[in-house]
Design goal:
Helices cover 71% and strands 3% of the residues. By secondary structure, it is mainly alpha-helical. The longest helix is centred in the N-terminal third of the chain and has 35 residues.
Length: 326
């Protein structure tokens, strides 16, 4: 427990800021008419303001900026190893948030969003956020990847997780809750491995998304929108590369796959399902896991809690594997 103390102020600052800013963003979205209309594959029955991700982003960004200035423990670790990478992560998160905000208003074409995702991911890779090695599952020897392979895998990972989190945002409280659980799981793993910068980042993510859940759990007053899902997907993907994927053990690659296993599986299955049916892989449908659970007669709250429990179980397995690999 003592090891967690340096990160509590960052968590509480992110939580407090997001909690206070969300009602302001709610009123802004109402005033500008940025509303998610019901119909189609959507499960809500009334127009709901979007742009909630703006409050999450601001809570995350401001709390981290404050930590850099006021928390020497963070500043020392940052200046010695990760200053450029943190700047890239925050700048990339800003670009993804802005793209998501525009998409919430203009409904951008899928290929336009994909192009922006690839460009931002490529910039992140070019500036040091990259999978550079993997561990051999039998000998635990480190195998360094060719530059092109590491870059390609990282871009695929970042773009994939960004879209997976976006597709997960189809039910009240789902994205905020799953992100909170995933961030806390990665926080525990990073704490076990002494990854200071990753711990501060994850504390800020968990604090901001947990606060947003207060307004987003069913019945939701505000949605995160692409504003939040794109930013959170990019941020979690990059933190995983900087943190869990840098652990030189046999389970290093498994850890982020387990922690983010549910959105990864749901997105992979959606792509396979649509391709097999001869549909465009970006074609929206109502066959995601949460849609199927709703068709069983469960309420939105029940479905959200079930998915939280599934994510928690996967996270517990990831923590257990990390502990065993120490």
């Amino acid at each position: 427990m003592k090891e967690c103390l340096p990160y509590i102020p960052t968590f509480l600052t992110a939580f407090s800021l997001t909690f206070l800013l969300t009602p302001l963003v709610y009123r802004l979205a109402l005033k500008l008419g940025v509303l998610d209309q019901p119909g189609g594959r959507k499960v809500h029955e009334h127009p709901v303001p979007k742009w909630g991700g703006l409050a999450v982003f601001l809570g995350f960004f401001i709390s981290l900026a404050g930590s850099i200035f006021f928390v020497g423990h963070f500043r020392d670790a940052l200046y010695s190893t990760r200053a450029v990478q943190l700047a890239v992560l925050m700048a990339g998160g800003l670009v993804m948030m802005v793209m998501g905000a525009l998409d919430d208003v203009l409904d951008l074409r899928p290929l336009v969003k994909l192009l922006v995702q690839v460009l931002v991911a490529s910039a992140a890779v070019g500036l040091g956020i990259r999978i550079s090695y993997v561990s051999h599952p039998l000998t635990e020897s480190i195998n360094y990847l060719p530059l092109w392979m590491g870059a390609g895998l990282t871009i695929l990972w970042i773009v994939g997780i960004s879209n997976a989190m976006n597709l997960l945002d189809g039910l009240d409280g789902l994205l905020a809750g799953v992100t909170t659980i995933s961030a806390l799981t990665l926080f525990i793993i990073s704490l076990m491995k002494g990854q200071i910068v990753a711990c501060f980042l994850l504390a800020a993510v968990a604090g901001s998304t947990l606060a947003f859940l207060r307004y987003n759990f069913h019945p939701a007053r505000i949605f995160m929108g692409d504003t939040g899902s794109q930013f959170l997907g990019f941020t979690l993907a990059c933190i995983a590369v900087l943190g869990a994927l840098k652990v030189t053990t046999t389970v290093a690659v498994l850890i982020p796959l387990l922690v983010l296993g549910l959105p990864i599986f749901d997105t992979s299955w959606a792509i396979f399902r649509r391709y097999s049916a001869g549909k465009h892989i970006f074609h929206a449908d109502k066959d995601h896991l949460h849609h199927r659970l709703l068709r069983l007669g469960l309420s939105q709250r029940q479905v959200a809690v079930i998915i939280y429990l599934l994510c928690g179980c996967l996270g517990a397995i990831a923590i257990y594997l990390t502990q065993g690999a120490r």
